[in-house]
């Protein structure tokens, strides 16, 4: 079984190259000047202008109002990613706990009320969601950026599956040991869920950070622009320019892709566990 | 509608029946408190009502109205928005492109993911390196993927354009309908392969060693062994991925499309979701956009019902 | 410490047609070790869980001591439970696992420490107090689960198949440990198992359950020697009691074409079920012809399987004796067990049934 298989490796290496090369090219090209790129095409070796380019992208006051820098966009993306991940964990853990560990009237109805949200992605209700947000006066705010994304039961679903996999006897032992629902949650469920929370945190952070459509609609005020919004912006500016700022676009793209990629690679084990074990 | 529901004890009826019947309690023993579960549920319910049910209801209600673009009231028009949408040649054109797009993206990203995962499962050496490479691409945001794709297909610097020119294909992504569609599909597939790879690989590694060994004894031919003994065990994963991939192609490719057509939707390929956005936010046609939203909701509903009922029974659960 | 009284208890799960437990009456004396034994699905665990407060009681009453506990929270019933899968809190150390219940009861710190130390000494868990359950072997985990029960000093211990997850050898030694512990603490205990050997060796009194009903209650030997039903006869004892179709004819028993003289008049008339323990059959010059089918060697004894008149039978023989293909078997007449062929109930010999005064033959 443990033979070396040259053909298998060849296919894998080609496949991996196909997957990874665009990212490598993006990173490398971002360290060259716009002129170099314009004349020499995309680069696969590092250039000498990386520092200047990233400094420009991070600190230059860009946009129409001059109120947004790359650093600001990084911060906004971070707020969105973290806020979304934390909000998701708090909301969905509490709801899943109620659904799994309590007997109460309308429990089944609540189950369906919550899990129906899995059926319809935000994309099919963007227009009315936008209207609701504007009625609530939440346009151009972090709250408005994060809350609507929380209106889906993915996290609840994960935690519910996880709670169901915890042996029943643990609750029974805890009840005999005199633990009430709140005590059981704090003393047993929370510590047991650490890995699960970490996994969901990673998945949700990446999801939040990578959001595009909703932040694009929600934020007309440039102070709330995320990196994804900035990417749209930089492409719009190009129209009609002689030599587009390829380097800056790539730098922005690298800024936007590095944090989620790093998080996911570093915490690979948790990430895969969280991702694959919860679909059952 | 009621009539249909009465005459056919079809999947919808059974689904509704399942929805209303009390399921097995999640635990043998549960807490019996009147108020506490509601406290735990409250935050999630509040968010869901305000940001899911309210907008969804609004989408349905405004799909029956034509709204004055300047916000001076709305006129009830019944199903006009629906018939307008479904009757228009443009809508049907976009719908058929969406269908083709979805089929191609799903087929290629599942196929490539399967191929690479099967190979990665067979090799021991460097397996985790391949997986790490795949995962890093998974974490990239669709708009970033779109941006990188744009660069690869750029008129001046794009290597793909040069490669195509070498074969005499003058590629004009963003201008030529077919070329843009080609680039869009390629980028969308690229972005989705890792997801399929991760799931299929973990599904493969979940197959017990004893089953593999039994298959090894029973079947000498490697390819035959894979298709008769291993692949059927992957059916639940594959089925789950099929639905996820369709949903991805329908909705999550929005950012890729938006970046690649750069707001010039006119003569570029777009999908139905993108049209909802264009009509609603660019054209200010709230009624029409809502009607299209509702149509998409129905598509997703049907997909989910299919997921629950029809295909599930054809899958071997080991 | 307290007695447990179970009165007219029934349990019907919501949506189920038939009750899982019907009309159970049982009194457990203070300090007594009672074992509930029966096949899976007989309701033994349900009964135990009703005493624990983990299942609702549909009908009837459970008293611990003088208190009716039907509506008392499990935590307030003054019981401790040991689970089959141990149910240790995986994130807590052995010490914390044992202390958790006491902490929740606001027991003073010093006392918690003293009790945990005492339990650890008793169960030889001293070196493991700061380990997590995952770093322990199955037997050690089970001891921690018992320690968790012991430190509580409850009125009763409830054991739900506590040894089922252990391997055979460990099970035997843990069995002894549980028995010793219970004798020493003299705490009322209710113990559920499907293993009849475990039941026999542990119990002061056995309760044999079948399909939600009590078949028989009694001391292990009493049940072994006088099974009340064919179910008990076949469930208690290994190898299981031989049950044959036979016919009563005055003082004689007919098995197919063969006859045993019971040397006395017997209860019942006509077709009955005849029970004979494997060790009560002996080879003899005359007697029932027995055709050997196959043999199981156990070392100290030899189980011989075969047929009497087409009916399967097993007997225990001395392994030193040479084996033959055909044997003739005899049985002491007072080792014969007679059961009603329909109800499976034991038919008492007339001379002992009424008042226990033997009637001269």
Walk me through this protein's architecture.
Chain A is mainly alpha-helical. Chain A has 15 helices and no strands. Chain A is globular. Chain B has a domain at 97-269: Orthogonal Bundle (MetI-like fold), CATH 1.10.3720.10. Chain B has 318 residues and is mostly helical. Chain C is 25% helix and 34% strand. Chain C folds into 2 domains: 4-229, P-loop containing nucleotide triphosphate hydrolases (Rossmann fold); 239-353, OB fold (Dihydrolipoamide Acetyltransferase, E2P). Chain C has 9 helices and 20 strands. In chain C, 39% of the residues are buried. In chain C, a hairpin with a 4-residue loop joins strand 15 and strand 16 (302-308). Chain C has helices at 44-52, 94-104, 109-122, 138-151, 168-185, 196-202, 220-225, 230-235, 350-353, and strands at 4-11, 21-28, 33-37, 59-64, 67-68, 79-82, 156-160, 188-193, 205-210, 213-218, 242-249, 252-255, 258-261, 270-276, 281-297, 302-308, 311-317, 326-331, 337-340, 346-347. The longest helix of chain C is centred in the middle third of the chain and has 18 residues, at 168-185. With 361 residues, chain C is α+β, with helices and mostly antiparallel strands.
Query: How would a crystallographer describe the biggest sheet of chain A?
Result: none
Percent range for β-strand residues of chain B: under 5%
Number of H- or I-type helical stretches of chain A: 15
In CATH terms, the superfamily of the domain at 97-269 in chain B is MetI-like
pLDDT averaged residue by residue of chain B: 83
Largest sheet of chain B: 2 strands, antiparallel
* Mass-distribution shape of chain A: globular
> Averaged pLDDT of chain A, please?
87
**What CATH first level of the domain at 97-269 in chain B would be assigned?**
Mainly Alpha
Number of helices of chain B: 15
Assembly type = heterotrimer
Radius of gyration of chain A: 23 Å
In short:
The complex is a heterotrimer of chains A (280), B (318) and C (361). By secondary structure, chain A is an all-alpha fold.
């Amino acid at each position: 079984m443990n033979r070396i298989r040259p053909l298998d490796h060849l296919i894998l290496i080609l496949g991996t190259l196909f997957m990874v090369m665009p990212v490598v090219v993006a990173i490398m090209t971002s360290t060259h000047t716009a002129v170099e790129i314009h004349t020499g095409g995309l680069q696969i070796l590092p250039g000498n202008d990386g520092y200047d380019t990233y400094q420009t992208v991070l600190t230059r006051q860009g946009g129409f109002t001059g109120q947004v820098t790359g650093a600001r966009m990084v911060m906004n993306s971070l707020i969105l990613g973290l806020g979304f991940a934390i909000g998701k964990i708090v909301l969905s853990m509490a709801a899943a706990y109620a659904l799994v560990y309590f007997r109460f009237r309308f429990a089944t109805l609540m189950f369906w009320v919550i899990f129906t949200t899995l059926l319809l992605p935000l994309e099919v209700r963007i227009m009315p969601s936008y209207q609701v947000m504007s009625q609530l006066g939440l346009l151009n705010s972090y709250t408005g950026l994060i809350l609507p994304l929380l209106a889906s039961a993915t996290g609840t679903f994960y935690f519910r599956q996880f709670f169901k996999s915890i042996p029943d006897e643990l609750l029974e032992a805890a009840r005999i040991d005199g633990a009430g629902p709140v005590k059981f949650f704090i003393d047993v469920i929370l510590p047991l869920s650490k890995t699960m929370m970490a996994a969901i945190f990673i998945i949700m952070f990446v999801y939040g950070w990578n959001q595009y459509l909703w932040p694009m609609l929600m934020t007309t005020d440039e102070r709330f622009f995320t990196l994804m919004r900035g990417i749209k912006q930089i492409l719009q500016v190009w129209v009609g320019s002689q030599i587009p700022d390829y380097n800056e676009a790539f730098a922005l793209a690298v800024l936007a892709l590095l944090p989620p990629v790093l998080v996911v690679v570093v915490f690979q084990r948790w990430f895969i566990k969280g991702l694959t074990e919860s679909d059952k | 509608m009621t009539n249909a529901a009465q005459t056919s004890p079809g999947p919808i009826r059974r689904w509704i029946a399942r929805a209303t019947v009390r399921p097995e309690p999640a635990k043998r023993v549960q807490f019996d408190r009147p108020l506490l579960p509601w406290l735990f549920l409250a935050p999630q319910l509040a968010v869901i009502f305000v940001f899911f049910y309210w907008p969804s209801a609004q989408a349905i209600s405004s799909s029956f109205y034509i709204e004055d673009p300047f916000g001076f009231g709305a006129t009830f028009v019944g199903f006009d928005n629906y018939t307008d949408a479904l009757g228009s040649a443009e809508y049907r054109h976009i719908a058929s492109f969406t269908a083709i797009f979805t089929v191609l993206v799903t087929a290629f990203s599942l196929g490539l993911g399967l191929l690479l995962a099967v190979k990665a499962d067979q090799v021991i050496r460097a397996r985790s390196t391949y997986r790490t490479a795949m995962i890093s691409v998974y974490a990239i945001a669709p708009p970033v993927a779109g941006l990188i794709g744009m660069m690869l297909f750029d008129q001046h610097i794009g290597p793909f354009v040069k490669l195509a020119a070498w074969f005499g294909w003058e590629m004009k992504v963003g201008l030529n309908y077919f070329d843009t569609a080609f680039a869009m599909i390629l980028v969308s597939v690229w972005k989705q392969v890792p997801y399929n790879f991760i799931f299929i690989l973990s599904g493969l590694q979940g197959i017990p060693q004893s089953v593999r060994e039994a298959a090894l004894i029973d079947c000498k031919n490697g390819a035959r062994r894979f298709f008769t003994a291993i692949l059927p065990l992957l059916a639940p994963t594959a089925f789950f991925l099929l639905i996820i991939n369709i949903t991805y192609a329908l909705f999550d490719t929005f950012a890729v499309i938006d970046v690649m057509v750069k707001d010039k939707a006119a003569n570029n390929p777009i999908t139905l979701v993108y049209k909802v956005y264009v009509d609603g936010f660019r054209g200010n046609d709230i009624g029409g956009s809502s009607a299209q939203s509702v149509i998409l909701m129905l598509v997703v509903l049907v997909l989910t019902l299919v997921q629950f009922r029809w295909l599930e029974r054809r899958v071997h659960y080991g | 410490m307290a007695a447990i009284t179970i009165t007219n208890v029934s349990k019907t799960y919501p949506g189920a047609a038939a009750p899982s437990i019907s009309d159970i009456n049982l009194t457990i004396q203070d300090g007594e070790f009672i074992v509930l034994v029966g096949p899976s699905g007989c309701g033994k665990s349900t009964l135990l869980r009703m005493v624990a407060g983990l299942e609702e009681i549909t009908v009837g009453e459970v008293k611990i001591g003088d208190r009716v506990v039907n509506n008392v929270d499990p935590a307030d019933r003054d019981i401790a439970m040991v689970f089959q899968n141990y149910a240790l809190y995986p994130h807590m150390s052995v010490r914390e696992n044992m202390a958790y219940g006491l902490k929740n009861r606001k027991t003073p710190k010093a006392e918690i420490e003293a009790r945990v130390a005492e339990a650890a000494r008793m169960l030889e868990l001293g070196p493991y107090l700061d380990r997590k359950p995952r770093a322990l072997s199955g037997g050690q985990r089970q001891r921690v689960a018992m320690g968790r029960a012991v430190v509580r000093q409850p009125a009763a211990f409830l054991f739900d198949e506590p040894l089922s997850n252990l391997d055979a050898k460990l099970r035997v030694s843990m069995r002894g440990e549980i028995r010793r512990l219970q004798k020493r603490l003299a705490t009322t205990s209710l113990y559920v198992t499907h293993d009849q050997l475990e039941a026999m060796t542990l119990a002061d009194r056995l309760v044999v359950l079948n399909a939600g009903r009590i078949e028989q209650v009694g001391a292990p030997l009493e049940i072994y020697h006088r099974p009340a039903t064919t179910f008990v006869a076949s469930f208690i004892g290994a190898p299981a009691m031989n049950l044959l179709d036979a016919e009563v004819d005055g003082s004689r028993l007919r098995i197919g074409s063969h006859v045993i003289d019971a040397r006395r008049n017997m209860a019942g008339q006509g077709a009955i079920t005849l029970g004979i323990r494997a060790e009560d059959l002996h080879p003899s010059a005359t007697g029932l012809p027995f055709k050997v089918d196959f043999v199981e060697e156990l070392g100290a004894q030899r189980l011989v399987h075969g047929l009497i008149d087409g009916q399967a039978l097993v007997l225990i023989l001395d392994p030193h004796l040479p084996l033959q293909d055909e044997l003739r078997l005899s049985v002491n007449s007072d080792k014969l067990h007679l059961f009603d062929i329909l109800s499976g109930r034991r038919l008492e010999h007339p001379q002992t049934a009424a008042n226990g005064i033997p009637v001269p033959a």
